[in-house]
Write a structure and sequence with these properties.
The structure is a homodimer.
Chain A (H helix, E strand, L loop, with lengths): L2 E2 L1 H8 L3 H9 L7 E2 L5 E4 H15 L4 H12 L4 H39 L35
Antiparallel strand pairs in A: 1-3, 2-3
Helix pairs in contact in A: 1-2, 4-5
Chain B binds a DNA duplex through helix 2.
Chain lengths: 152, 152
DNA sequence: GCTTGACTTGGAGTCTACTCCAAGTCGGAA
DNA sequence: TTCCGACTTGGAGTAGACTCCAAGTCAAGC
C-alpha cells in the first residue's frame, strides 16, 4: 500500500493536479487522506479509479456518466445490468453520431467537388444545389454541450 | 424589400430571438436597422445570412469558423480558395472523427458481448482484457468544445 | 385611454470540464 | 537557517454558445 502526492499521482494517470483537485471537489473522487503536512496521499486504489475515469473519458463518457459508472463499481450487486444499459446507450449514441458524420462527410465531399467546376462556389452557399434554394437536409446538429445546447 | 421584426425573423430561420441578438452582439450579423419604435427590422438578405449560419452549424462549423465563411461571402475575389480550405479542413476533421468513433463503437460492442459471458463485468473496468491490466488503446478523445475541451 | 404582448438594452447566468489566482504552509536541499 | 518547489484552500475565471433578467418603450387591439 504505497501512496503518492498529487503531483506524482497526476503524472501517473496523465491528468493535471488541478484536475484531481477538481474531481475531489465535485465528488468524483473521495477526499484523499492527508499526510502530516496536509497534503493529499493517493493510494493505488485511487490511482486506479482515476485511470478508470480517464478510460471512460476516452470513450466519450461525460463526467456525469462516469459518476454513474463509478457508483456501479462501488455497488456490484446490480451493477452489471445498469452498466450494460449505460454502455448500450453510449453505443447507440456513437452509432447515431456515425450516421450523422457520414452524411456530413459526403456533403462536404460533394461541395468540394462541385466547387471545382461551378462558377459560383457552392461552399459559400453551403448548398450543393444552387438552383434549388433549399437548405441541405443535414441531420440536426448533434446536441452540443448543453450550454449551447440550443438543442440543435 | 420586405422586413420583419426579430420574433418573426427568428421564427423564419428557426432560431430564438435571443440568439439573433447574440449574433448581432458578437458581430456575426451587422447591426440591423431599427424601425420608428427602435425595433430591429430584418431584411431578406439578413434572413438569408441567418439561414447560412444555420446551415453551417448543421455542418459542424463553429461560430468562429462561420464568421470566416461569412467574411469570404462578403469579399468574393479570393473567397473560393479560402472557402475550399475551410471545407477541406472540416472534411478532414469529420473523417478523423469517424475513425475515432468507429473504433469506439467496436470497443463498446466488444464490451457488451463480453459482459454476457464474463464473471466480472468488463464494462465496469472499461477494459475488454481483464487479464491484461492495460488500458484500451482508445484514441484520445475528440477535443470537445474548448470549455471542457479538455482536449478530449 | 388602458391592456398586453413584443421588443429594447446592458449585463448576468447556464452548462461542462477544467484552469488560474492569491495567500499561506510544508519540507527537502543547500 | 534559508530557499524554493510542491502543496493547501476557497473561489474566481475560461471557453463557446447560448439564455435569462430587469426596467422600460412601443403599438395594436379593445
Amino acid at each position: 500500500m504505497s501512496s503518492c502526492r498529487i503531483g506524482e499521482a497526476a503524472q501517473h494517470v496523465g491528468m493535471s493536479a488541478d484536475t484531481l483537485r477538481y474531481y475531489e471537489r465535485i465528488g468524483l473522487m473521495r477526499r484523499a487522506l492527508r499526510d502530516g503536512g496536509g497534503r493529499r496521499a493517493y493510494t493505488d486504489a485511487e490511482l486506479e479509479r482515476l485511470r478508470f475515469i480517464k478510460r471512460a473519458q476516452a470513450m466519450d463518457f461525460k463526467l456525469a456518466e462516469i459518476r454513474q459508472l463509478l457508483e456501479l463499481r462501488d455497488h456490484p450487486p446490480s451493477a452489471r445490468v445498469e452498466a450494460r444499459r449505460l454502455a448500450h446507450d453510449k453505443l447507440a449514441e456513437v452509432i447515431e453520431r456515425l450516421r450523422t458524420l457520414r452524411h456530413l462527410r459526403d456533403e462536404l465531399r460533394l461541395l468540394l467537388n462541385l466547387c471545382l467546376g461551378a462558377e459560383q462556389c457552392p461552399i459559400l452557399e453551403l448548398n450543393p444545389h444552387p438552383l434549388k434554394r433549399v437548405a441541405p437536409a443535414i441531420r440536426k446538429r448533434q446536441p452540443a454541450a448543453r450550454h449551447r445546447h440550443a438543442a440543435r
